Amino acid sequence: MIKSKIRVSRTGRYYLSAAPSSHIDEVWFVCHGYGQLAEYFIRNFQGLQKENVLVVAPEGLNRFYLNGFSGRVAASWMTKEDRLDEINDYVQFLDDVYTEVISQLHNKDLKISFFSQGTATVSRWFCQGQAKAENLVLWAGALPADQTKEDVEKLKGVKLYLVAGDNDPFITEDALQRELSLLHEKELEYDLIRFGGKHEIDPEALQVLAAKLRSV
Q1: For 116-159, what is each residue's pLDDT tens digit?
Q2: 59, 151, 155, 163: which could form a disulfide with 193 (CB 3.0–4.6 Å)?
Q3: What is the pTM (predicted TM-score) of this model?
Q4: Cα 1 to the center of its chain, rounded Å
């Protein structure tokens, strides 16, 4: 058996909180976690809506039925199958979304943040893609384990934020402390925000985060 590969064009989609305009000076690229859709994920950021703020929610290229063969549809960014190809594909997709959106904003002083509940996605995008951001927000997750030395050096050039719920079943206290220890070992500075909740986008914590980003 011979395995072959071929590149194809895909149609990806993304959602915007508002139409791009000259008033925008703050842009959030928000990436959903596993089993979500961008259309619903972006609703978590309604509390950020201001004339000068634009939220952009790209959607993972892999869609599937959550239960059986019909019903609710969800999306993911990648699987372990041909993982490097899938990573390259979604990094290119996110770069394309970034380029299309930013080209419509005629403001040289944009403050750009990458946010993700599927934290490995934006981490790899920031390190491997062409898009630039001042802030990298890892919500209820950690940096991917396959970070290279080059990735770590790039991460030293961004303001890193970690947000975690006190009762998150996926990010236990032990797991969080291990991640913080790894960040110390890599000499990566970060700002940690905690909230009393589970694996969710907490509105109050999001406002705390937004205030911190705007104060820098």
Answers
A1: 987 899 999 999 999 999 999 999 988 888 889 999 999 999 99
A2: 163
A3: 0.94
A4: 38
